[in-house]
């Protein structure tokens, strides 16, 4: 998908209160079991917003907040440039928490070697997309957290995003849900979500979105996979069947609202219709050892051609290093189809 | 507890837009298998608010809304006056959906015979309180819906209410939860909740309520039994441990806010701390056959003296029939300790 460029006057990006500054430092040569890597691709994740949220309580967010002055935390696909570890040779591709940096000095134990398989369509970028956090989030949330079954009708918001597009495909092609309904921003994205297997995808920017969603969810649905929170969540609380389940995955609608998030007004639906809401974080799948078999299943389905991870399932934005924050901000502007990947130029 | 009287100028009760009107009709004599009953006590339940909510969607609330012109629906303890049923004799006490009426003509099959046991402290009013909907709601919600265990610390809002006061006692004396924290409106009520077994009860009307709640929940808690919704729910979402559970039972904070409920702002806590929220309605315990053994367990604990249902566990308000709505409104003004019962004068 052709990348779009964000507006230049975003206060996060420029001006006196810009969130990020550019710093140049000199790295020492790798010590024992260290490796120097060149960052090729950076993962852009809505969750990064929480890591730099002002006033985030370390006890309440699932990971340490990024401190002022520290490099911005990010996942990256990198190439080994120099290594004093036996296991990592020059030229090896690895996955690591590289941060927003051109080069990074990492402990070898924190680098996961990657083996793309071009013949199966598995490219390096997939390890931060379909076969990385987003794909695993989709699988874990849908199958494990809300226990989606073939008899369930499922609604997925952010359906054209990195996670949502995988939820649609897993629901349809792995679980075999009886109906899969996407919600995405724009007709073009919606048609793409339908091409992935959604029975229908509804454009939340359409003036008659409510009516369209009502029609799509006629008879109500059993499962809602929520990537967005806010008003769409509120609507969906009224479209779930009695004993319906919600996988609470993200709330991007509120991520840049500062201290005044949009409140969820239809809480009483949870009571009256006995809904079950479950929040989750993908790292739980990793620490409980569930992620391995899940990824294996997805690779299998990709090789069978059931799950599509074509060029249109990622928005790869060639980016000068100093423009890394600009590309990241596209996430919050709906600028990506599938995974938003920064390719360092 | 001494009843307090609500303000006389409540627009629900008087004026051109009063919600209720008084009507007098003549009842025919009982037909086959019918019974004429005199209403002795009426149950006052926050849920009644939802049954008359303007625009309530019959598909979304768990019971039919009360239609304009119909008698207000209510549960009652009644005495049989005249009966053409073999099974119900004159003078028998029964439980039924009698509505707000002095006398009611009911099908015998809709009347449940009651057997108070004064020696065990079980009075007729208990069948709409500790051994009725509120007691069962407490037991089912705490034990079945959020699976409270001995290793859990539990917070209960509305702790001096009909349901909350039973949650406190069941948590402490049946489940044996390691810590039970009540939230109630007023120091007197809080001390009463502590007398029931709560380790501490916090007054939400106190100026330093937040600080008190923070201290009481130091180390965070595993379970929150929510009877109130609104701002207290929002606070509690920040005081639950990772993988904490919420029994979503009621949202009285919003019941008289019309179309603009207080939104739940801390939804992101559900995600980041992997909370589980489960809505429930007590009738589910009845239709699944779970209620019988639960009530039996409670009767047993009452007879052992573990669960207290003394005079202070109900606020019985002697009420002229035309003032029935006035007594009901006390529910939303925090005017009751334990179950609020209308005794028809």
Automatic annotation (TrEMBL), chains A, B:
Gene Ontology MF: a single term: oxidoreductase activity, acting on the CH-CH group of donors, NAD or NADP as acceptor
Domain Enoyl reductase (ER) residues, every copy: 15-342
Keyword Manganese: no
This protein's UniProt keywords: Oxidoreductase
Pfam families, alphabetized: ADH_N_2, ADH_zinc_N
InterPro entries assigned to the protein according to its UniProt record, in alphabetical order: ADH-like_C, ADH_N_2, ER, GroES-like_sf, MDR_fam, NAD(P)-bd_dom_sf
SMART domains (UniProt xref): PKS_ER (SM00829)
Record keyword Oxidoreductase present: yes
Name assigned to this protein: NAD(P)-binding protein
Source organism of the structure: Zopfia rhizophila CBS 207.26
């Amino acid at each position: 998908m052709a990348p779009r460029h964000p507006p230049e006057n975003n206060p996060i990006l420029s001006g006196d209160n810009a969130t990020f500054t550019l710093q140049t430092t000199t790295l020492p040569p790798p010590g024992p079991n260290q490796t120097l890597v060149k960052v090729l691709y950076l993962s852009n994740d809505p969750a990064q917003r929480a890591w730099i949220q002002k006033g985030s309580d370390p006890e309440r967010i699932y990971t340490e907040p990024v401190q002022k002055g520290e490099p911005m935390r990010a996942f990256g696909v990198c190439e080994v440039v120099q290594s004093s570890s036996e296991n990592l040779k020059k030229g090896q591709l690895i996955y690591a928490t590289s941060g927003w940096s051109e080069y990074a000095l990492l402990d070898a134990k924190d680098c996961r070697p990657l083996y793309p398989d071009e013949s199966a369509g598995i490219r390096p970028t997939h390890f931060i997309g379909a076969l990385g956090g987003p794909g695993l989030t989709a699988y874990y949330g849908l199958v494990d957290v809300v226990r989606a079954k073939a008899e369930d009708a499922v609604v997925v918001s952010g359906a054209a995003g990195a996670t949502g597009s995988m939820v649609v495909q897993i629901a349809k092609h792995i679980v075999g849900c009886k109906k899969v309904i996407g919600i995405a921003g724009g007709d073009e994205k919606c048609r793409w979500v339908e091409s992935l297997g959604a029975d229908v995808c509804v454009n939340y920017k359409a003036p008659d979105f409510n009516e369209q969603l009502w029609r799509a969810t006629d008879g109500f649905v059993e499962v809602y996979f929520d990537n967005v929170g806010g008003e769409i969540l509120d609507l969906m609380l009224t479209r779930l069947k009695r004993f319906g389940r919600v996988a609470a995955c993200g709330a991007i609608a509120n991520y840049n609202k500062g201290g005044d998030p949009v409140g969820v007004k239809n809480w009483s639906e949870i009571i009256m219709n006995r809904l079950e809401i479950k929040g989750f974080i993908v790292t739980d799948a990793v620490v409980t050892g569930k992620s391995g078999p899940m990824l294996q299943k997805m690779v299998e389905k990709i090789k069978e051609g059931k799950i599509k991870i074509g060029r249109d399932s990622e928005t790869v934005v060639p980016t000068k290093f100093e423009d890394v924050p600009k590309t990241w901000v596209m996430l919050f502007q709906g600028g990506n189809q599938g995974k938003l990947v920064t390719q360092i130029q």
